[in-house]
Each structure stands twice: as C-alpha cells, then as structure tokens.
C-alpha cells in the first residue's frame, strides 16, 4: 500500500469515527431534551426541614455591589437554628462589613497563592466542622434565591441523602434587548434546566452548577473541595457521582443570576465556563468510562455522555466542520456514509433546540431570535480559539453589574 493510499484510508477511518461519535452525542442530547417532556412525580414536602439545622455558605470575593441584595432575600428563608456564613475570600472592598451589618456570620480568608471558590468553600466547611449542621447549602453572592428554595433543597437532601441542585438560570438585565443576551439566556436554559430535568426523568445523575446546591453533611465532607479549578462545581459533582453520591435535580427550587452587561465581563465569564468544561471533559470522560467498567455502573456511562455534550455553540461549530469535511470526502471518494451521519446529527440538534424552545423558552425568546444563533456562535469563536492557543487555568472573577 502506497503512502497516499494509507493516508486516504486513515482519513476515512478518522472521519467515520468522528461522525459516529458526533451522532452518538447528538442522539444523547435529543434523548435528554425529549425526556424533559415526560411527566414526573412531584416532590411532596414532609416538613422534616423544620427540625433540621441548615448552614448556608456564601463565598464572596469583592462582592460589595451585589452582596446586600443577595443576603436580604436569603435571610428571611432561614429558621432560628440555621446559620448564614459569608466567606469573604481575599476581599479588598466592603463585602465583609456589609454582610456583618445584615447579621450574617463573616469569616475572612486571605491567601495570595491558593485562590478560587473551591478553597473558600473548604475554608467555610472547616469553620463549621466542630458543630456540623444537617445540611449545607451553597449560594453564590450574586444570586437571587426564590421563596421556598432553601426549604425545598434542604428537605430533598435530607430525604434522599444525596446532593441536590436547584434550577439555576441566568437572566438578561431588564433593560437589555440584545439578541446575544437572549440567545445566551436560551443556551443556559438548555444546559441548566432542560438537560438536567431530562437526566432526572431518566434516573441519571445531574451535574452541579455552583450555586443553589444542598448537601447532607456526611456527603459534602466525603470529598475534598480545596481546589483552584476554574469550574470547581462541575468537578465536585463528578467526584461525588464517582463516589456513589449522585446529584439530584430539584426543579421546584429556583435560583437566578444576571448575565453581565459589559462585553468584556461576558467574555470573561464565558471563557471560564467553556474552557473549564473542555478541561473537565479531557480529564473526566476517560475516568468516568474507566469507573463505569470497574464499578459496573451504567449511570457513570450516562454521566460521561452527558459531559461529552459540549456547549450549544461549540456543538454547532463541530457539526459545521464535520459537515464540510464529509461533503468534501464524499465528492472525492464517493463514500457518503459520513455525510448521512452528520445530517442525522444536525437533525437531532435542531429537534433538541425546538423541543427546548417550545416547552421552556418560547415566552422569553421570540422564534425569529433563533435566527441570530449564527451571530452568537461567531461571537464565541475567539473563546474556543483561545482554548487551543492558551487555555485559561486560573479562576478570574466576573465583574458585577449593579442590578436595579
């Protein structure tokens, strides 16, 4: 066999494998979105929450702009025996003073080397370990916790002895009519609502999203949170899943944040999310597959597939590249199987997007705004290009907008 023939065979094998993997991922994406439409037994309150002690940890790094609003909405939800602890992590502003003035317990951490939310949370857990609560709830300093969410999360964690993730959505600012913000909000609805809801209805564990999380004390202390990883929440959820503590999605509990208005802040936030997700994929997909075999657990295989579903914009980019390569390959060789598989993958993605929009986002996102998705993808191209050139490895705080 000549070198040219060997290259042709190798190229065809690589293309076939790539398009097959894409098809599997897109099929799984469609299954998740479709499963979100299935009925599910509603969560019945047993009011065990009234007799338990809950500690809410709020990690905060220079959050003076938003911390007051967050705590004022959070404190009325707590019982007399509960505790609210703000971890002022490497703060150089008035975060600690504002939190104390509102009645929260404030602990301050200063460490110029070990930076990141994971280290702050570990510091908070070590502070309360001598008088441990029944449940630990983690809320970011820039979030709005809806009425009843703390009770729902805590009670679900107590009843199941599992980590619990609330519905966490990012909303556009009230004065924003940006198509980018509308599409970004829609992509987060797919990622943080539709897919975990579908996973739950299929009996699979969900991922964790960093805020609106509740843990039984024994569960949260079974893993090490002291990490500077830029998506420590995603890592935590996967570590717990591998250890047998499968996170559960609680649709009823709702926590929201706001998308950054400043372009640079939005790009910083997206870079951290996207680069972190890709880094976690590289590390944890092989680990999940290995543990699925070692532990004989199908849920770990499902978690690996769930993790392989990239952000919507990246998924469309990958599809576009493989579609171009497959068409070129088909024209040159007459082999059209890769084209067929890529077309099927594209149909799965389109059906998934339409299902998610028609059930969960049609009121917030006009149908014609879906046509702006290509422009949103174009905005995201530099984020993924930077991952190839210089992936982000350090946690960088997103600048806050003051919410009116």
TrEMBL record:
Residues annotated as transmembrane: 12-38, 304-329, 335-358, 370-389
Question: Which molecular function GO terms apply here?
Answer: transferase activity
Give the keywords, sorted: Membrane, Transferase, Transmembrane, Transmembrane helix
Using the record, list the residue span of the signal peptide; answer none if the entry has no such feature: none
InterPro entries with a match to the protein in the record: Glycosyltransferase_2, Nucleotide-diphossugar_trans
Q: Does the keyword Membrane apply?
A: yes
Its recorded name reads Glycosyl transferase
């Amino acid at each position: 066999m000549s070198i040219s023939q060997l290259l042709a065979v190798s190229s065809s094998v690589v293309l076939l494998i790539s398009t097959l993997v894409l098809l599997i991922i897109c099929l799984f994406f469609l299954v998740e979105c479709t499963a979100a439409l299935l009925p599910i037994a509603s969560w019945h309150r047993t009011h065990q929450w009234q007799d338990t002690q809950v500690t809410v940890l709020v990690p905060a790094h220079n959050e003076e702009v938003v911390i007051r609003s967050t705590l004022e909405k959070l404190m009325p939800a707590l019982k007399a025996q509960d505790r609210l602890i703000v971890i002022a992590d490497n703060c150089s502003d008035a975060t600690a003073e504002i939190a104390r003035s509102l009645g929260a317990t404030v602990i301050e951490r200063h460490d110029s080397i070990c930076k990141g939310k994971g280290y702050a949370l570990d510091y908070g857990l070590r502070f309360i370990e001598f008088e441990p609560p029944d449940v630990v709830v983690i809320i970011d300093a820039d979030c709005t916790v809806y009425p009843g969410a703390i009770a729902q999360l805590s009670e679900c964690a107590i009843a199941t002895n599992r980590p619990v993730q609330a519905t966490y959505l990012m909303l556009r600012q009230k004065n924003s009519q940006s198509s980018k913000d509308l599409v970004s909000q829609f992509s987060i609805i797919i990622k943080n609502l539709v897919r975990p809801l579908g996973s739950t209805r299929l009996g699979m564990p969900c991922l964790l999203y960093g805020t609106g999380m509740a843990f039984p004390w024994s569960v949260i202390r079974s893993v090490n949170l002291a990490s500077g990883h830029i998506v420590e929440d995603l890592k935590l959820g996967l570590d717990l899943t591998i250890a047998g503590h499968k996170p559960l999605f609680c649709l009823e509990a709702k926590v929201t944040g706001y998308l950054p208005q400043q372009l640079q802040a939005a790009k910083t936030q997206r870079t951290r999310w996207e680069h972190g997700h890709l880094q976690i994929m590289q590390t944890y997909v092989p680990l999940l597959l290995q543990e699925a075999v070692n532990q004989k657990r199908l849920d770990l295989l499902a978690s690996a597939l769930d993790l392989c579903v990239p952000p919507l914009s990246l998924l469309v980019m990958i599809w576009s590249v493989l579609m171009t390569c497959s068409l070129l390959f088909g024209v040159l060789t007459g082999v059209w199987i890769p084209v067929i598989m890529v077309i099927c993958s594209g149909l799965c993605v389109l059906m998934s997007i339409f299902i998610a929009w028609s059930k969960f986002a049609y009121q917030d996102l006009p149908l014609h705004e879906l046509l702006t998705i290509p422009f949103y993808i174009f905005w995201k191209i530099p984020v993924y290009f930077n991952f190839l050139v210089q992936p982000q490895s350090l946690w960088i705080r997103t600048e806050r907008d003051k919410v009116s």
